[in-house]
Automatic annotation (TrEMBL):
<comment type="similarity">
    <text>Belongs to the acyl-CoA dehydrogenase family.</text>
</comment>
<dbReference type="InterPro" id="IPR036400">
    <property type="entry name" value="Cyt_B5-like_heme/steroid_sf"/>
</dbReference>
<keyword id="KW-0479">Metal-binding</keyword>
<dbReference type="GO" id="GO:0046872">
    <property type="term" value="F:metal ion binding"/>
</dbReference>
<dbReference type="InterPro" id="IPR006089">
    <property type="entry name" value="Acyl-CoA_DH_CS"/>
</dbReference>
<feature type="domain" description="Cytochrome b5 heme-binding">
    <location>
        <begin position="2"/>
        <end position="81"/>
    </location>
</feature>
<dbReference type="Pfam" id="PF00441">
    <property type="entry name" value="Acyl-CoA_dh_1"/>
</dbReference>
<keyword id="KW-0274">FAD</keyword>
<protein>
    <recommendedName>
        <fullName>Cytochrome b5 heme-binding domain-containing protein</fullName>
    </recommendedName>
</protein>
<dbReference type="Pfam" id="PF02771">
    <property type="entry name" value="Acyl-CoA_dh_N"/>
</dbReference>
<keyword id="KW-0408">Iron</keyword>
<dbReference type="InterPro" id="IPR037069">
    <property type="entry name" value="AcylCoA_DH/ox_N_sf"/>
</dbReference>
<dbReference type="GO" id="GO:0020037">
    <property type="term" value="F:heme binding"/>
</dbReference>
<keyword id="KW-0349">Heme</keyword>
<dbReference type="InterPro" id="IPR013786">
    <property type="entry name" value="AcylCoA_DH/ox_N"/>
</dbReference>
<dbReference type="InterPro" id="IPR006091">
    <property type="entry name" value="Acyl-CoA_Oxase/DH_mid-dom"/>
</dbReference>
<dbReference type="InterPro" id="IPR009100">
    <property type="entry name" value="AcylCoA_DH/oxidase_NM_dom_sf"/>
</dbReference>
Length: 513
């Protein structure tokens, strides 16, 4: 490895059985690898490659991470004397220097009124944690579709990951958040925004939803409406990732139209008997409990149902990874104590509504971060890809697409941060009355942006955007999964309409054109 060569020495190794190449000042002996090369042998025997500096050819066809994989890294036998590597992978926690790859508050030389030194310290430590603990697992699980390992959940529990994902509040009291970097009483919605942003920045969408998203939406009804006994019995294990809960509302019969749901709970003494089905239940495959919306005599009621006799889950194949645990859930005469009711009987709608703002805001935050990653991918690719003898970004049509993508991401970020600031300064009741409309409109705007960015990125990457591995793998994943943001937590158009209807409701009576 430490051996140094000149380009002249490398040039002598340019034939079958004795083949060296140089990539970014590093010398690789590919004599044996050549027959295993996924791109074929003959491309490596080309005059411009064999015994030559193949840096440009390599980066036109591979991601940098290819060279970092152990099986390929060990092909390196030395370096070129007097030359230094130029292309460096980011160290865990390090910020990207690609323009617009980071929100402006993290970009060198830019400012923001929203973030404190504590947010910066928290972001740095949390990104490092994500890259070291979550990212390797995310890549594995996205491919094999298996549940995230208990070992990783235990590490998440050490930093109090799920409690932080539930936002600021009493549930954080006495907890050490991210190794104590932020005090529980100082944790605010910008800290939570950082958490949502970082976990969505790997391009592994199924894993983001598998990472306690079920808990983020299913725990608050227990936290806010469960009896003290129920809370004491289940919250410690739920918040520490030893047990899992899924929110079971939508059915094949009804989604956004919650009043059309058919799962029924009938009283029999001091028990509910629940019968019905639920569909598209995120994290349902591996959930131990279900926070379930049921039709009861007095209306719509939320009931906490443990997995047990009469409860069955079947994985649903979706266009993203099975690690999200998307399930079809069947309740067949399931008996649950009436004390498992969350909130008042018949008041289930307000239990669900009370959490919708937070859930929708979370979806916009993760979508926004995933979009920014795609902008970075496109900026890098169009800079390194050569077409007609020039970088791809020399084409005006590509620059026009990049311009639109950047504007979408920056405008989304600014609106998201402005709403986050409102959340930080409002009571929960104020948020419910003042932010439901703006968050609905924001979610519509951001999820639409996501699909438009996916379309433009696909055009920029061409055929590479269609393959699950290789150069365009993140664009492919985003193109396949960005539509989820337009559906989960409320359909895009329904939410846009909610925003407008709320505005109409608040129109003053004393104004006319
Ligand atoms: C140490 C050197 C190299 C290694 C370890 C390597 C490894 C790989 C791997 C793993 C792939 C599969 C796609 C991916 O995962 O990105 C691939 C594809 C390919 N490689 Fe290489 N490669 C090397 C050098 C080169 C060079 C110098 C060329 C120059 C022409 C080349 C041409 C190709 C082509 C044409 C493909 C197919 C690309 C595609 O399907 O889009 N490779 N290589």
């Amino acid at each position: 490895m430490s051996k140094e060569y000149t380009f002249e020495e490398v040039a002598k190794h340019n034939k079958e059985g004795d083949l060296w190449i140089v990539i970014d000042s590093k010398v690789y002996d590919v004599s044996k690898f050549v027959n295993l090369h996924p791109g074929g042998a003959n491309v490596l025997y080309a005059d411009s490659v064999a015994g030559n500096d193949a840096t440009q050819a390599f980066f036109g066809l591979h991601r940098h991470e290819t060279l970092l994989k152990l099986q390929y890294a060990r092909l390196q036998i030395g370096t070129i004397r007097g030359e230094e590597e130029v292309i460096k992978a980011l160290a865990p926690g390090e910020l990207s220097t690609v323009p617009y790859a980071e929100p402006s508050w993290l970009a060198d030389g830019y400012f923001s009124p929203y973030y404190t030194q504590n947010h910066r310290k928290f972001q740095k430590a949390f990104r490092k944690f994500c890259m070291e603990v979550i990212y390797p697992e995310a890549v594995r699980c996205e491919e094999n579709g298996k549940r995230i390992s208990q070992e990783v959940f235990d590490k998440l529990s050490e930093i109090n990951f799920l409690p932080m994902r539930l936002g600021p509040g009493k549930h954080l009291e006495g907890r050490s958040l991210m190794g104590g970097i932020v005090k529980p009483e100082e944790f605010d919605y910008f800290h939570e925004l950082i958490v949502n942003t970082e976990i969505a920045h790997f391009g592994t969408r199924g894993v983001v939803d598998g990472l306690f998203n079920g808990g983020v939406i299913a725990v608050p009804p227990i936290l806010n409406y469960g009896s003290p006994e129920l809370q004491a019995a289940v919250l410690p294990d739920l918040l520490s990732g030893k047990k899992f809960v899924a929110l079971a509302i939508s059915e094949a019969f009804a989604g956004s139209d919650v009043s059309g749901l058919q799962t029924t709970a009938v009283k029999d003494g001091d028990h509910w008997v629940v019968t019905g089905t639920k569909k598209w239940i995120t994290n349902g495959t591996f959930a131990d409990y279900f926070t379930t919306g049921c039709k009861t005599e007095t209306g719509f009621t939320m009931i906490f149902i443990p997995r047990g006799e009469g409860v069955e889950t079947k994985p649903i194949k979706t266009s993203y990874s099975a690690v999200a645990g998307t399930a079809y859930v069947t309740f067949d005469k399931v008996r649950v104590p009436v004390s498992n009711t969350l909130g008042q009987e018949g008041a289930g709608m307000s239990v669900i509504l009370s959490n919708f703002n937070h859930e929708r805001w979370m979806v916009t935050a993760t979508s926004q971060s995933a979009q920014r990653l795609i902008v970075e991918e496109c900026l890098k690719w169009s800079n390194q890809r050569m077409v007609f003898g020039k970088p791809l970004n020399a084409q005006a049509v590509i620059r026009a697409k990049l311009g639109k993508m950047i504007s979408r991401v920056e405008s989304g970020q600014n609106w998201l941060e402005s709403i986050t600031y409102q959340m930080n300064n409002m009571t929960y009741a104020e948020m419910s009355s003042k932010l439901a409309g703006p968050i609905g409109l924001l979610k519509q705007y951001i999820s639409k942006n996501g699909r438009e960015i996916a379309e433009d990125a696909t055009q920029i990457f061409g055929g590479r955007a269609l393959t699950v591995t290789g150069m365009g793998k993140l664009v492919e994943n985003f193109h396949r999964t960005s539509g989820f943001d337009a559906i989960l937590a409320g359909a895009e158009d329904v939410l846009g309409d909610l925003g407008v209807r709320q505005a109409i409701k608040k129109m003053p009576v004393n104004v006319k054109l």
